[in-house]
Design brief:
Length: 324
Amino acid sequence: MTTALAAPPLVTTKAKGRVLVVDDSNTIRLLLTASLRQAGFEVVLAADGAAALARLDDSQPEVVLTDLQMPGMDGFALLEKIRARAGAPEVIVVTGTHARDMDAALRALRLGAHDFLTKPLPAGEAVALTLEKALEKKRLRDANERLLRELEALSRTDALTGALNRRMFDETLRRELARAERHALPVSLLLLDLDHFKRVNDTHGHPAGDEVLRVFARALTEEVRESDAVFRYGGEEFAVVLTHTGLADAVKVAERLIARTRSLSVPVAGATLRFTASVGVAGATGGSLDPAALVEAADRALYEAKRLGRDQVAAQVPQEKTRC
Ligand code: GH3
Ligand code: MG
Ligand code: MG
């Protein structure tokens, strides 16, 4: 016979959310603290607008419940300052019930307050309900912002390697060439292509090929300056846009990149896979160059590097378009 021992009930101490209560009246602060804690909220206190602002960073409240009339910085000024912050908490204002108090409440709503409560404050449950609605809005807003940031990152990068994608390449090259022209600065483009990559797939399988692409892209990103972005141009071809860099220096960077590539390896069943890359380099110096001409020159250089035996760098100067 087995004796089942009942597990002790799980006590969850997690608060519903963190609320910053701002009021110059000690009595109201105490009353609100008691009823909000009773309702399961974590409460942080401040006696005026300035003190509330000082507490925002360290306590990170999700909702601020503030009086409007306070000495020094009042509720309106506090509200405006809060709304100007990134990831701001929701604000509920507390006001009286006279006609002028209603005007004040309306003004607060127009300034971005989520809702208002009137004094004397209703029973604890009604205050808690208003707070819960504000919390829900704040969390939805945060989730939305997170999702947008994720989507934005996804729309810029290549899913396999994490390098910036072709759309970003087109945008960046156009922008950097325009900037280079405006400030008479040099800009160079590297097109890198893995050598005999088809053989990697054919011999070791597509997943091994994918891993080579990831390892290669990571190494490129590590090797270049933070301002010099790495793009997946397509397939096993990558591009690096080197700002403020003339052709001679760009060739040096390319040499460094292929040397690093030789040192890379990917483990495959019982062996170590090594690979090489060829690079085509093209540079522009403040002239009126269009992106297509620079890409075309880098592409011709890449073809030349392949033709000369791969695992090497070749450079080309873009051809000026001549008119007959
Ligand atoms: P070369 O030295 O002349 O560049 O030869 P190569 O074999 O690298 O060139 P080719 O253009 O003939 O082959 C490129 C190969 O890259 C073919 C294609 O299947 C492979 N490839 C393109 N994108 C991916 C990918 O995302 N993953 C994997 N595993 N392979 C890819
Ligand atoms: Mg290739
Ligand atoms: Mg290729």
